Structure prediction request, 288 residues.
Amino acid sequence: MQKLSVADALKTAVQRLAATHCETPQLDAEILLAHTLNQTRTWLLSYPQAQLAAEQSQAFWHTIERRAAREPVAYITGHKEFFALDFAVSPAVLIPRPETELLVETALHLAAGWPQPTLADVGAGSGCIAVALASRLPRAQITAIDISTAALAVARHNAQQHGVAGRITFLPGDLLAPLPHPVDLIASNPPYVSQPQLAATAPEVQQFEPRLALDGGPAGLDIIERLLAQAPKKLKPGGTLLVEIGFDQGAAVKKLAQSYFPGAEVHIKPDLAGLDRLLVVRDLAGQV
Prediction:
């Protein structure tokens, strides 16, 4: 294989990815080349005439072909940043999304006033929520639950990488069933995509991300309702439940939450785009 410069490799890769309708061909190509060369994107821009060795060119083109088949960049590199932390990811887990940072920020704000908070991350996936919370709450004890043992293995690895595994208990099981005792805060990014919406998602989601972490049933509310039904007995008096939801689910989810938590404060928190994103249930009276 003929040697290529960084600039030529990127140009060819961008053309290939654009032809397969990837949304961000330039960014994808830069990330994949930086990953292949074990460099930063800044380095690529600084040394556009640097030459790729033959084996580097071959490895880079292999990643481009995977991306051209619409495999997500994060699965190709095995990494995704979330809350300024690097997380290992695999096809066993949902790729962390920026919108989930609202849940983490809200949880941190609430837990800041508790001396030794107990928290549960339900549907932990990569562990991005549990690990992000543990990294900012040194006195917290966190339980991370997922029905997928493969996902829990990824979450445990990420906790070890960030030095917080000693404060996170990993439990396999369905929603809150494995949680042995009530906690101060329950946080969850459950499957909430409706089946019609899931059928219309991009190939990156439909073909590669775990359906178990996405499919919320016909209206996207099946798992959320089951979680709401279980939560009252698993939340301490005065505690809070945080659940990420779909942009069009606010009214329906609020009504469901009020039926399972009569007397509690229930509201929907929007994301930066002003869309419904987070259900917040606070037991102000100490009774839910």
About this structure: The chain is about 40% helix and 20% strand.
